[in-house]
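Quick one:
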Amino acid sequence: MHDLPGLLLGLTAALAWGVTDTAATVASRRVGSLRATAGTQLVSVVVLVVLVLVLLVHVRLPVLVPFLFLLVFFLFPLLVLVFLFPVFLFVLPVVLAHRAAEAKLGRDGGVRAGVVLV
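Output:
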């Protein structure tokens, strides 16, 4: 068993992933997906800021390293959200309209590849 630390870290990551997924599912069913996502992001940012402060105070790292944590785990997802917002704003209504037309005309009745056949 030379790789016991790797095995333990992998099992811990799998457990954390499962707990997080279950908690997110329960939260989104209770308060809605948007509020659950916003709450998750807020909690993540608070935990990340605390982690950065602990690293700055207790661990002798270059000052740049904790701020790289903030950059990677907070600013990058924020940029992804900003750049994906137009996709949700413009593409999603088209997809939803297609689904509504498909439902109106029946499961496959008259709707092929996004074109309504009259």
